[in-house]
Amino acid sequence: MFEEIVFPKNNEKEFIEIAEKLGTKKITFLYNLEDYKPKHNFDTDIEIKTGIISKTSNTSHAFKMSKFVAAKSSQYDRELIEGKKISMIYGFEESPRRDSMHQQASGLNHIMCTLAKSSNVAIGFSYSSLLQNNPMITGRMMQNLKLCKKYKNNVLVGSFATNPLQLRSRYDVASLFRLIGANV
How far, in Å, CA of 104 to CA of 118, rounded? Predict the structure, then answer.
């Protein structure tokens, strides 16, 4: 499922302007806990949601403040997923571990997929990671998409843009992810 997820730095209006031009229907602003803004008053037809990027230590507090709590993949992924306090976890492909000879260290495995499915935690995939043109990240993402498809995980595909000019049309994002194996 495609959902426009972005990380604004007091430039929400610019994100909205470009999103309107691209025909985006819904956008989710993710903030650090300290910068969280629950309410926005923008004159737009786009549905605006807000969420918090959480770390392991502050998930309980973040969950009380927002309905949508996301976490970037780290060494504490299992704790985050089992705690059922997050809505989405993303960035598995950017794991610093080295790939072995016969398998990629994609950060995701069958156990994590099963836990995410039972905890109703979505797995996020970033369009901006693919734009880095790194074959290792692309290969890891393909492997993770296969795992998510096999274990029927909820998948969120988005741009994860930090700059408004990184936004892309949902059709561009969906077509690129279809090439690497996603059902978007």
Answer: 25
Q: Are strands 69-72 and 47-54 parallel, antiparallel or unpaired?
A: parallel
Q: CA angle at residue 147 from 145 to 153, to 5 degrees?
A: 80
Would the pLDDT of 184 be above 70? no
- Across the range 152-157, mean pLDDT stands at 92
Q: What are the pLDDT digits (tens) for 122-143?
A: 999 998 888 887 888 888 899 8
SS3 108: coil
pTM above 0.90, yes or no: no
Residues 67 and 49: their CA atoms lie apart, in Å, by 10
* Separation between Cα atoms, residue 171 and residue 184, nearest integer Å: 9
101 C-beta neighbours (distance < 10 Å), count: 4
- Going by C-alpha positions, the residue among 37, 108, 100, 48 that lies closest to residue 78 is 108
**Which of 151-168 are b and which e, b meaning 16 or more Cβ less than 10 Å from the residue's Cβ?**
bebebbbbbbbeebebbb
Give one word for 104, left, alpha or beta, with left for phi > 0 and alpha for psi -120 to 50: beta
